[in-house]
Specification:
This protein is mostly helical and about 170 residues long. Helices cover about 60% and strands about 0% of the residues. It contains 6 helices and no strands. Helix 2 packs antiparallel against helix 3 and helix 2 packs antiparallel against helix 5. It is rod-shaped and about 125 Å long. The mean pLDDT is about 95.
Length: about 170
């Protein structure tokens, strides 16, 4: 006969702690989703950065023109002509708003007003960017014109500006 049946039992051992590798399938899915999401967001941010590059370049060029004017290297009308050229190149060539290539004077100023959603170009200091700049007695307040142009550049968007002008031209 047996003395004590409990002596035949083995000692109790705790189970092994789960290893951290390989992770459970849920963690694999979460990791894949995080990598795909990071790649997607990075691509979108890079495209947006590249799309805004012409706007940053225009802002830099106009800033350099303002500095040249302040140093007396160019006169007021040269500043106005060059700023107008930078704006035209930005909108027509860089952003692809081709119908603005043939616009001038009032049409050009109305298009700029549409972008800033105001009347700064057709009635304000920005009016010098129209045919008025070719007048023999043309003059402009460079500080005010520069502020109006900076406001315009702040409102220009790589895709929405083209859509806005297309919508307004259909109205």
């Amino acid at each position: 006969m047996q003395d004590n049946p409990l002596q035949q039992l083995r000692d109790v051992h705790t189970p092994l702690a789960p290893e951290w590798w390989p992770p459970a399938p849920g963690w694999w899915l979460l990791c894949i989703a995080a990598v795909v999401g990071t790649v997607f967001i990075s691509k979108r941010l890079w495209r947006a950065h590249r799309a805004r590059s012409p706007i940053r370049s225009a802002r830099t060029l106009i800033g350099e023109l303002k500095a040249s004017h302040n140093q007396g290297q160019i006169d007021t009308l040269r500043y106005v002509h060059d700023c107008n050229e930078v704006l035209k190149r930005l909108l027509v060539n860089a952003l692809g708003i081709r119908h603005l290539a043939a616009t001038s004077d009032d049409q050009w100023l109305r298009a700029l007003d549409t972008i800033v959603d105001g009347r700064e170009f057709s009635e304000g200091h920005g009016k010098i960017l129209g045919a008025q700049r070719f007048s023999p007695q043309a003059s402009a307040d460079v500080e005010a014109v520069h502020q109006v142009i900076q406001a315009l550049l702040g409102r220009v968007h790589p895709t929405r500006t083209k859509q806005l002008l297309a919508e307004r031209s259909n109205d």
